[in-house]
Specification:
The chain has 264 residues and is an alpha+beta fold. Helices cover 27% and strands 25% of the residues. The strands form two sheets. Strands 1-2-3-4-5 form a five-stranded mixed beta sheet, covered by helices on one side. Strands 6-7-8 form a three-stranded antiparallel beta sheet. Strand 6 and strand 7 form a beta hairpin. Helix 1 packs parallel to helix 2. The longest helix has 27 residues.
Length: 264
């Protein structure tokens, strides 16, 4: 079987319509409002009837306004999604979308021409890219911005990821683990996460975790992918990070009472 390469690997795409939707504030006590860029698009691999397509259904929320807070948040979003900074969201979105669809047709059409006589290989070229985003209030009125990405680029199976960014409402700066915890937090936090993983999986030891396919090639760690909730922090591990694809996402939640000695 001929090996197929991902079009742009794990890059994330958002195609935006004009940002003049209803938007509206999600923080009733805040001046920060949100708008949404969204689009549904189907791009054929070749200009012919019944050709495979790259189908996109994309919804991306971003902050209204031109102040520093909105700029900081929107720059972080465009960098995470498009690897672009210092560009308006719409411009970054359009640039990335145009490049992605162009590369899909350019790179995959020659391969499809060779394979189109084999119906068993058609599914390799039926690309799908879906993004949904949301924002909600978190601890101390921080902004918790979530990205749900579902994509298929001709591999053995679809890829699903949940990505999270937490923002300081007053500055728009992204909150990282080093901003939350005291120096030297890594090892004791890892111990707490290990105990939570054992509890979740009903395992009593590392060997038992290995038997369930957890931590086969890595040690437990605290990811920057986390949700700052009102009463707890939820750490999110996407497939392949601490377990195989078949396990899906793993979420480990620690209450602030457990974390009290580690927090600033």
């Amino acid at each position: 079987m001929k090996k197929k390469h991902y079009l742009i690997g794990m890059m994330t795409l958002v195609l935006a319509a004009c940002g003049g939707g209803e938007g509206g504030g999600i923080f009733t006590s805040s001046s920060i409002d949100m708008d949404e860029a969204k689009a549904t698009k189907a791009v054929p691999i070749l200009n012919e009837n019944n050709a495979p397509q790259c189908q996109m259904n994309l919804q991306v929320k971003y902050m209204k306004g031109n102040d520093e807070v909105a700029k900081n948040i929107n720059d972080a979003i465009t960098e995470r999604l498009f690897q672009m900074t210092n560009l308006p969201v719409q411009q970054a979105v359009d640039s990335f979308a145009n490049n992605y669809t162009h590369e899909y047709q350019k790179n995959m059409a020659p391969l499809y021409r060779e394979d189109r006589g084999d119906q068993a290989k058609r599914a390799w070229y039926e690309y799908r890219y879906t993004i949904e985003t949301d924002a909600k209030r978190g601890k101390d009125d921080c902004i918790v911005y979530t990205i749900d990405l579902d994509m298929f680029e001709g591999g053995a199976h679809p890829i699903h990821q949940q990505l999270v960014m937490n923002f300081d409402k007053k500055t728009g700066k992204q909150i990282k683990l080093d901003d939350i915890f005291v120096q030297g937090y890594q090892y004791p936090l890892n111990d707490l996460l290990m105990e939570e993983l054992k509890k979740l999986t009903k395992c009593k030891s590392l060997d038992e975790l290995h038997e369930q396919d957890y931590l086969l090639t890595m040690d437990i760690y605290a990811p920057q992918n986390f949700i700052l909730g009102d009463d707890e922090i939820t750490f999110i591990y996407n497939p392949y990070e601490i377990a195989p694809y078949s396990k899906g996402n793993t979420e480990l939640t620690l209450s602030y009472s457990k974390l009290e000695k580690l927090m600033k």
